[in-house]
Amino acid sequence: MIVNDLIEALTISDTARIKGMRDAIAAHPDPWQIHLSLFPAVQRVLNPPFINPHLPKMYGVCRDFIPYLSKRGIASLIYLELMEYARRPKLETLPPPPRPDRPVAFEEIEKSIAQNDRDGTARLLDAFLVHQGPGELMRRLLLLGSGYLEKSLGHSISCTAFILLELLHRDATEAWPALVLLADYFCKGGFHTTPELIRYSPTSPSHDLLFRSVTGSGFVDIHHTITLYAIERSRSFSSDQEHGHLIAAWAAWLGTKPSRPRSFPRDKTQAAAIDTTIAEYGDFTHSFLQLDADRMLAQIGGMIDESDARTRLCSFLIQSVCDLYDGNYNPHYLTGLGALMWALNTHHQEVGLVQNALYQYLDFYFSAMRSKR
To answer: What are the φ/ψ torsions at residue 51 (nearest 5 degrees)?
Structure first.
């Protein structure tokens, strides 16, 4: 019953009703099931004046947070999600078509997008999904989106990847709302021509490219890292050559952005003491509430390259962002956090790189939160 009530409140943008159900969300025996049930409704959530489907992408990124959260933490995340989805306008519903009876060439989809035919594009995407499967749809749409990274600020890949990754957890019959959303987005963006593959030997970004990505904490800078996160999370759907192309397209978007890594003191002899002082969430959040990235980095330097401490750091970061929720969040606070979690867990051997990724996200988030005070 609570799930149906929450979906209804989300759909009609009744944030007051969701606020009134916060305790019920926390008391739910498995709040993650609430999240899973929201999928169809979330695919209609828009974020004007932007055309990018930020909120459905955020929904997909939240899956990466769950291993680090307690039941209370998951409930806090679900409440934040519900409030953000509810307070935004929704895409109108489009009745699903009959099951397609013929295969569709991807070129038909591109032509339909070029004609700005949203409904026709959605039907063609549905037919392609049924006959070719979600993996092939992911592969082709990522390649299509790779030609528009600068125009879309990376969203033509990052939003696409996380929306389609969610389809892997669902039956094809549940995909229609997401396909309508993607059709709407690609038509609005005019993303209709798949580029020629860029020849690129490495199948992962170079050390220099990684440092260039995490240099800076501005709005564009954090999109560089979010987009790389999406490319790497969807790695298994591309051949080595195609993945190299995606990395090369992303690198071209970075352009002449310099690598300017910041140096952070990290006294190995103090690592144990640092871990002890940050062993409890209350101590961590006390520092987090100061909204000072340099101060925060000075206290968590010993939590990067040791597995248990790193897991605790991820948990504390996610929980703190949820607990500071003020009823009005930029979705990049969560998608940027997902990119940071990815960097922490895949590049933790490179402490300097991860410190810069931490600074990029924390300074971006803290600056925004300070502006509200």
So the answer is: -90, -15
Angle at CA 284, nearest 5°, toward 282 and 288?
115
Q: How far apart are CA 227 and CA 335, in angstroms?
A: 10
Cβ-contact 33, 7 below 8 angstroms: no
- Give the residue from 307, 314, 309 showing the smallest Cα distance to 338: 314
Name residue 50's beta-bridge partners.
47
Helix, strand or coil, per DSSP, at residue 184: helix
The Cα-based distances of 73 to 15, 59, 114, 318, 323 in angstroms read 20, 16, 44, 8, 9
Length of the chain equals 373
Rounded to whole angstroms, how far apart are CA atoms 117 and 94?
13
Residue 204: exposed, middle, or buried by beta-carbon count in 10 A (0-12, 13-18, 19+)?
middle
Beta bridge partners of 90: 45
This prediction's pTM: 0.95
Mean pLDDT to the nearest integer, 116-139: 96
- Please give the Cα distance from 223 to 154 (Å, whole number): 7
Give the confidence band of 265 by pLDDT, cuts at 50, 70, 90.
low
> Exposed, middle or buried: residue 79 (CB in 10 Å: 0-12, 13-18, 19+)?
buried
Q: CA angle 166-172-177, nearest 5°?
A: 65
pLDDT (tens digit per residue) in 340-359 = 999 999 999 999 999 999 99
List the beta bridge partners of residue 47: 50
Please tell me what DSSP assigns to residue 50.
B
**Domains detected in the chain:** 2-86 (1.20.272), 268-370 (no CATH)
Residue pLDDT, tens place only, 48-80: 999 999 999 999 999 999 999 999 999 999 999
Contacts of 109 (CB under 8 A, 6+ apart): 121, 124, 125, 128, 140
User: How does residue 287 score in pLDDT terms, banded at 50, 70 and 90?
Assistant: very high
**Which range (65-79, 139-153, 218-232, 273-287) has the least confidence?**
273-287
